[in-house]
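WARN retry 2 of 3 for item q-0093 after timeout on previous attempt; input resubmitted unchanged.
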Amino acid sequence: MFTEESGKFYVRIEGRFESAHYLYNYFPDGSDEPIHGHSWKVEVFLSGKENIRPDGISYDFLTARNRLQELVHNIDHLLINEHPDFKGINPTSENVARWFYAGLKEEVAKTFGNIMRIVIHEGPENLAFFEP
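OK item q-0093 returned
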């Protein structure tokens, strides 16, 4: 029977936002990168504390998805450099991924889940991911 097949289960949620940023000290002469914008996508890969529950669900992602949408709304249509959480922090894709992790980890833990990976897409071709 197929339900006896072993393996590890993950679920994925995603959000999209439009924001601008620039990187500090980007060029060899120490100057900043020019301000530019991206169509961003964040993907969050989650697993349950149990691999799969008796009801066949590995992780009920509804609460995490709602929290992700709050975070996306908080960073949408702004200059990320001016967001209070990024004061003095270079808004790289890597740091944006860690920001999402910090904003999600408590909610996911309360619902007996684990964040396995957060992927940040800077447009359709470039990405960075964070695995806690």
